[in-house]
Amino acid sequence: MSESVKNRVIIKTASTEFEPYDFDGPLQEDMSLLRLSHDNETGQGAYMIKMEPGAETIRHVHKRREEYLIIEGDLIEDDGTILGPGDYVIYQAGSEHNSRTKNGCFLIGIDYSFSEPNVNVT
Q: First vs last Cα of the chain: how many Å apart?
């Protein structure tokens, strides 16, 4: 659920339903996504991801810079790095990885490019 007034959008993230996660190809049943300003066509903008315990992303190459903040839970990167609440990660365009969680994870992410037009929040 979101509210819009001129030049402002408020998204009630606590009461808005997340959709199935499909960023890296097929739907992943153990992950869900809430697009905040993320535009599926441009691949840019902010989003929230919930990962159930044991969930794992599909290995992927970033077309744009990706940044994310772990809000709750754990996230284990493919090199064994364990992330937790408050950890902020930046992946440059062209980087490749996958992530998994042991106990579940909730994060907010942003994908963007400095060389492509900005995304407009609607």
A: 13
Task: Report the CATH number at residue 83.
Answer: 2.60.120.10
**Domain of residue 96, residue span:** 18-112
Q: What pLDDT was estimated at residue 116?
A: 64
Find out whether 36 and 48 touch, Cβ atoms under 8 Å. yes
Is residue 43 assigned to a domain?
yes
Residue 1 lies in a domain: no
Tokens standing for residue 76:
């284990």
State which residues of the chain have pLDDT below 70. Answer: 1-5, 116-122
Element of type H or E holding 20: strand 19-21
Query: What is the Cα–Cα distance from 49 to 20, expressed in whole angstroms?
Result: 10
In the chain, how many domains are there? 1
pLDDT confidence of residue 120:
55
pTM confidence score: 0.85
Q: What is the DSSP letter of 85?
A: T
